[in-house]
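Look over both lines before class:
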Amino acid sequence: MKCPFCGYTESKVVDSRPTDDSERIRRRRECLRCQKRFTTYEVVETVPIIVIKKNGMQEPFDREKLLRGVLRACEKRPVPVEKLEKLVTDIETELQNSMQREVTSETIGELALAALREVDEVAYVRFASVYRRFKDIDSFLEELEKLRDSHEN
């Protein structure tokens, strides 16, 4: 950290504490050359994830939209809301950790399907029917066969 008084680049942290809103860290520093003290603030840098939709349009990732989708798939199913919130948080964390700032809606849909498959198979099929746009009963049966085959293996 560069001293605002003498420009020296070496300093030591004298005190460190979160700000009142807990969004930043306030640090009191002392320059190792001129011994003057100054304050810096440390902020977590977040880069938004951009979702590229099937039609090519782009929009920011919206965890609430994903949560609404999995909630709808789990309607009248014995799945606690907390479990679904964790599922969405896990997907969001995976996207943030991937270091890719643009992700396709297909990628998000596949992550949600994989997670729902572990949580509730009926919710999985419901979500798949909307996400994969099942057109007829054969589409449902094909997905159910895949699910049945995975149980047998």
